[in-house]
Predict the 3D structure of the following.
Amino acid sequence: MLLKELRTQVLEANLELVKRGLVLYTFGNASGIDRDKGLVVIKPSGVDYDELIPEFMVVTDLHGKIIDGKLKPSSDLDTHTLLYREFPSIGAVVHTHSEFATSFAQAGLAIPPLGTTHADYFYGPVPCTPPLTDEAIGGRYVHETGLAIVNYFQQNKIDPLAIPACLVNGHAPFCWGKDAHHAAHNAVVLEAVAKMAYNTLTLRSECAGVSQSLLDRHYFRKHGAKATYGQ
Amino acid sequence: MLLKELRTQVLEANLELVKRGLVLYTFGNASGIDRDKGLVVIKPSGVDYDELIPEFMVVTDLHGKIIDGKLKPSSDLDTHTLLYREFPSIGAVVHTHSEFATSFAQAGLAIPPLGTTHADYFYGPVPCTPPLTDEAIGGRYVHETGLAIVNYFQQNKIDPLAIPACLVNGHAPFCWGKDAHHAAHNAVVLEAVAKMAYNTLTLRSECAGVSQSLLDRHYFRKHGAKATYGQ
Amino acid sequence: MLLKELRTQVLEANLELVKRGLVLYTFGNASGIDRDKGLVVIKPSGVDYDELIPEFMVVTDLHGKIIDGKLKPSSDLDTHTLLYREFPSIGAVVHTHSEFATSFAQAGLAIPPLGTTHADYFYGPVPCTPPLTDEAIGGRYVHETGLAIVNYFQQNKIDPLAIPACLVNGHAPFCWGKDAHHAAHNAVVLEAVAKMAYNTLTLRSECAGVSQSLLDRHYFRKHGAKATYGQ
Amino acid sequence: MLLKELRTQVLEANLELVKRGLVLYTFGNASGIDRDKGLVVIKPSGVDYDELIPEFMVVTDLHGKIIDGKLKPSSDLDTHTLLYREFPSIGAVVHTHSEFATSFAQAGLAIPPLGTTHADYFYGPVPCTPPLTDEAIGGRYVHETGLAIVNYFQQNKIDPLAIPACLVNGHAPFCWGKDAHHAAHNAVVLEAVAKMAYNTLTLRSECAGVSQSLLDRHYFRKHGAKATYGQ
């Protein structure tokens, strides 16, 4: 894949967030990685979405060193690069403050798998990290944000592609996927799933959620060697 | 009716779901049946709604055997065909993951008749099936989903045209009607009714709902030999 | 005013309901009255909003006898005509199943005056009628619906122009105003007020609402001889 | 800056409120100030937003005396001018009845800082004033509304630019900023923050909110000498 093509894919993923109502003003950011070249392409910081063109995307290495681009990269860059370093299977990262997913993050609650819409995309609860310590917040904060996600997934032995999203406590969701298109798609579905989980829990707080067998059935309908969904 | 006409009707019912905000990406599906020919026309699986044309609709027999069409049918086909076999009065089936109806399904709750909007369309609670057993989920799952609906209606002696919708526990609603237009219309109204029921119950959990006489009055205003609504 | 002009005003009021998202499909209806001629102009029953033209509006006398028009009038006609007969100060009536106002009606709850938005338009709680008896429902139901509204206002000595709306228990709101434009405007504001009351009460159920002096200040800022709002 | 330019900026801020769904009909108003000339430019009262042109903006002095303009100024003018007199650092004021911020005002509740979206814009809770006394309501009401805001900020030693918004009890929010663009932007973000706070608190009422260190980190990422966000 040419880097030019990746810039376009990353731009399109950013614009998909706008189209689906997940971002306000300059909130949110999407990035993608070229694993062969070890290069990350990310949205610039604080630029209006309707002014974005592929050339404005910033290119960095896996440690955030700028390789190409005249604009400053997203202020969340260090979270993105850490996720790329620690989750070698992912090809793109998306961060939004989408309303309902962010509300769960603010409540410090994971999004439990309450239905098959969830199970089609997320093979278990979408976790919420523990709050960052004052030390972590006062230190390399953006890096620590990524570390909270990575630690949670590694300590709980979760495959990042099986649950391609995490809520950062008191903050908002980060999502990912095999490429920029899928990462944005996952962010959009996460918001829909979060909204329905909110409705369900406020309607019936003691709701048990789907059984393991229903989770298995729906997740593997869309994922893995035996997937049957689509053409 | 020509099969070509049915393909167009089924396509239009699918697009109505998009227009009314009931589906996201490739979620949801609508089908219709030609009772004389015993043929079912259904949306293909996982194709973007804005790419759909009548020719993409898949034609099967009443047991899901593909008669015409190059694409794979909706993965929910076996639920549709079972409903057609067991509910001989219905002419179309619509499945969505529309937000509020799905939230009731996730909570495992029927939608009670709380007002005349409900009574105009659904002559009693819109039921929610019991959860599927692990055996059913591990077996012919899509067929079992239809069976849970059919069993509920038959055991409770409910006329499928009097309550043209059912929530599948932990999943989402299935709706139907005399033709594709009405099935989609019922799905749209079900979502509006579910949203208002959510608001009502979160505002006043002990809400009693409409009386039998109000249910009768409104339902028979729009249905049956003495209907007075419309031209 | 010419009847032709009234037909246009009534049509525009109906279309305002669509534009503001208060009605779905053919739900809802607006009417207006020419007091000099004693003629009511009302939307026809069950006709799509985008097909409506002024000529389709149905003209009746104050007891619902059709004077002009080839279509059947709205099935809620008898409620409209009763309101015109009993509330001589009103010039138009609007009925919708708008989501949040209907949710209060379904809960059997009045909308309390919780803020100045409410006070700007409604000089006190927007009441909810008691449930209709089975006898009333089984009898002249549409007339009885209007009677429940009229009785409530008369027994509680409420000026219909000071509180230009009422919730019908288990059903939905009826609104009115000095003309069709204002009646539709009141229906739109009622929905906004109902939505904010829902949010407020679910956030803090014991909320006290505005004081009588704040209610007075805001209401009379927009109404009566000392109004200061607008040009 | 020419006064003509300020008129245009104030008009654009008013229109931004419409575009973002914060105002209904003629609700809401925005103003800006030319500190050198001591002149305030404000929206006229009760004029439809789609009829507004820069020339319709009304120019007053800091005590509300009309200097230029044929239309009556917004009925909230006295609140705006008091804020300008008492908060010398602000350059614009915006008032809306936006749904969720107004719902908190109706509940008489401050919006607590529950997440980083809040912390990016508001360095602490967005306060809610105590209810106005009957005397204040019966007196110079619009002036007293501003006084309630000013008193709260001064007694609690809050920098108006650090928390550029306040809820008026039983009424709605007032927001401000260094110029009209930022004041409108703050009003839009306040509504998003209020909506997420509503969701969070109805999901988990005992939610603690962000730590002081997280509040510091996010607020100073976007504000002050060490800000890193944007280009």
